[in-house]
Structures are given as C-alpha cells and as structure tokens.
Write a structure and sequence with these properties.
single chain, about 400 residues, alpha/beta, 5-stranded mixed β-sheet, 13 helices, globular, binds zinc ion
C-alpha cells in the first residue's frame, strides 16, 4: 500500500530531475520541446514547470509571438538569480573561484595568484570561503548555494574524496573536502575531483566532446594528466587514480620529477620543460607560458624551437594513449592547447610515427571548446549533481 502511495511522488521527482537536467545542459527550451523530450502530457509539463518555478530554479517567458500559426510555446529557462554552485580550480600558480548558475553560466569569477611556496590545503579552503563571502556581498544576496566542486591537479580517492598525491602542490593524503566543509554552512554538498577528470566531463557535456563517447582530455600545466571516457563512462580505476600519465617514466636517466622519480612524461612536456627548452629559467606560470607562445607566434627562434621540441614527446605520449585506449578524440588542454595551435603538424607527425597506423589516422586532436575553463566547469558540473538528481532539495538549500 505504501509503495502505491509513494509512486506518484517518485515519478514527479524523477520528471523534475529530467526536466532540470535538460535545461541545465541545453539552456532555454520551449514547453513543446520539453513535452517531446520527457514524453509526458502537456498538462504534466505545466505542473512540472510550475514546481520548478516555485522552487526558484527556472522562469518562464511567453514570447511575443509573430503573426499566426497557433500560439507560441512558452519558453522555460534557468533563472539568472537562482541557486548557484561554487566551482574552484586549484592550480599550482593560481586559484580560480567562480559562482556558476544552472545552465553553466559563470556569474562571478575571481582569479587569485597563489603565494609561493606551495599553498596549503587550509589556505586554499580559507581563500575559497572568503571569495564566496565577497561574491555574496557584491551582488548575489539571496541566491542559495547548491554545492561546491573543487578541481585539483592530483589524485583523488573515489571513495573517501581525499586528495592522495598532488605532487606539484606538495599535498599528500589531504582531506581537503572536510577542511572546506568545516568552513561552509552544514549540508552543502562538496565534491573534489582531479582536474583532467573534471575537464573531460565538462567537454563531454558542453564542449568539444559533446558527440563523442571515447575521448581523452590531456591536461598540461606544470603537471600532465589524462581524463578518460570509455563508452561515455569515466575510466577511474579501483581507487579513482587512473590517467596519471604524466608520471609514466619514459627515460630512467631523464630529468628529476616532483614525484621523486626521473624521466617522467611531464618532465618532457610540462610547462617547466617548455620554458627550459626555450632557455627561459623562469617559474612555470601561465603568464610565462603565454609569453613564450606569443613570441613563437611572432617568429622568435628559440621559442619556436622549444615548441617543436616539445611537440615530439607530446605526440609520443598521445600515441601511447591512442594505442592503449583507441579514443575517437584527444582534447589537448592547458598549455598543450597552445602547443597544438603552434605545432599541429609536428604533433600529428609524431603521433603517426608512434601509434599503430589505423589508430593514428582515426584519432582527432582538438582544442577544448571551453578554453581554460574545462576543469572549472567540470567542478561546477559535479557540484550540481545533488540538485539535478533531486530539484525538490532546492527548498532546503542554505541561503
Ligand atoms: Zn613524476
């Protein structure tokens, strides 16, 4: 008897979740489109839209229609001032914090340089919460916080959410999520993930892998890591550490790596290697790499030579991925995106040389459509997961 009584509510919850997820992924949709997508009656759609409006999640507009054929369908869209998530991208040299609304719109953003030496987890957590307070003061009062997502350049345990190793941050077995939870209102869902894993998720949902189920996102910053989708599903491994290809050793007598070994892939294709090859003995910041790329574009010899020198081991690293995973597409993010722009023929040549012939021919190399925001927006996606699963939970969000 109870199951019969519970059913209509379960169906309503399910339909609300499907509707909000569609609006989150695709933006504004007409009632007619929603009716078709959900496969329910027009009156049910009307009731579901009313629920989401009541919850403060969406708004509806009646288009001032053109002359003629029938009534124009109402347009349902995520609210600009509805609940938001805080997306945090922890990079070695800087911290990016954004308030992201339903639909993936970035409403506020702060980029804060990290003060050397490497930032502690506590410092990052405190700065994150300070940024949230500033954003609230500066114009998002009343909007409810639906979750926090954090991208880190390191391994994240899929069961505990602890950061296992983030070599370039100097973090080891850090309960970063709990640190953050202690500083935030109770009940805010917090998700921590690896930067490349989150980047591939975001590119799959709303970027250059939208139509692609077998894809690798190769993230190159100071370190290098891969986020992998196989058949549309994330490849995580038992503990969630899959994809740490930056620490595949390619030459035991190679340069020392932050992880303690020698000759890791990232010592050949990471930002540090690129700058060294150009004779620029600088800290590997985003600005230093951008300056090198700018010089390469204007024909600076040393900069161009460095870019081409890194293209060869990069193509080889991609070839290893291609031989192992046979992806349809490899997206090169971070600094690797700039390398692809400047040295595509060299990278493709190396890929062709080292991968099996058939595979190198069918693998496409792409830049991320979300630019430098892939990991940040992936963090927003995982932060939204709870609300998208159960939009009725919006009623209980801490304001
Ligand atoms: Zn290493």
């Amino acid at each position: 008897v109870t199951t019969i009584a519970a059913r209509p509510d379960a169906i309503r919850r399910h339909n609300l979740a499907v509707m909000l997820s569609q609006l989150h992924r695709d933006g504004a949709l007409t009632r007619a489109q929603l009716t078709q997508r959900l496969g329910v009656s027009r009156s049910t759609i009307g009731a579901l839209v009313a629920d989401l409006i009541q919850l403060g999640l969406v708004e509806e507009a009646v288009p001032s229609g053109g002359a003629g054929v029938g009534r124009p369908s109402h347009v349902v869209a995520p609210r600009d001032d509805g609940p938001f998530v805080l997306a945090v991208d922890v990079d070695v040299t800087h911290l990016t914090i954004a308030a992201v609304g339903i639909g993936g719109t970035v409403r506020r953003r702060e980029v804060l340089p990290n003060v050397p030496p490497t930032p502690t987890p506590r410092a990052i957590a405190e700065r994150t919460v300070e940024a949230l307070d500033r954003m609230r003061l500066e114009g998002m009062p009343g909007s409810a916080l639906a979750g926090v997502g954090v991208s880190v350049p390191g391994t994240v345990d899929r069961h505990s959410g602890r950061v296992g190793v983030a070599p370039n941050l100097g973090w080891r077995d850090e309960a970063f999520g709990s640190l953050l939870a202690d500083l935030l209102p109770t009940g805010v869902p917090i998700a921590v993930g690896n930067d490349a894993d989150l980047a591939v998720l975001a590119e799959h949902r709303r970027g250059s892998a939208r139509d692609c189920e077998d894809v690798v996102f190769l993230m190159g910053r100071i370190g290098v890591g891969a986020g992998i989708l196989v058949g549309g599903q994330p490849l995580r491994g038992r503990d969630g550490h899959a994809g740490e290809i930056g620490h595949n050793v390619v030459d035991v007598s190679g340069p020392p790596c932050h992880c303690g070994k020698n000759g890791c892939t990232e010592t050949y294709i990471g930002d540090g290697a690129l700058l060294e090859r150009a004779g620029r003995h600088l800290p590997p910041t985003e600005e230093a790499v951008a300056a090198l790329f700018a010089d390469a574009r204007t024909g600076d010899d040393a900069a161009l030579r460095a870019v081409r020198a890194v293209a060869e081991p990069l193509g080889r690293a991609i070839a290893n991925l291609v031989n192992t995973l046979n992806p349809e597409r490899v997206i090169l993010g971070g600094s690797l995106s700039g390398l692809l722009d400047l040295a595509r023929p060299e990278i493709e040549g190396s890929l062709e040389h080292y991968a099996l012939e058939a595979q190198s021919r069918t693998t496409q190399l792409r830049q991320p459509e979300l630019g430098g925001d892939s990991a940040l927006l992936g963090a927003a996606e995982v932060a939204f997961a709870d609300l998208l699963d159960d939009p009725l939970a919006a009623a209980a969000l801490p304001a």
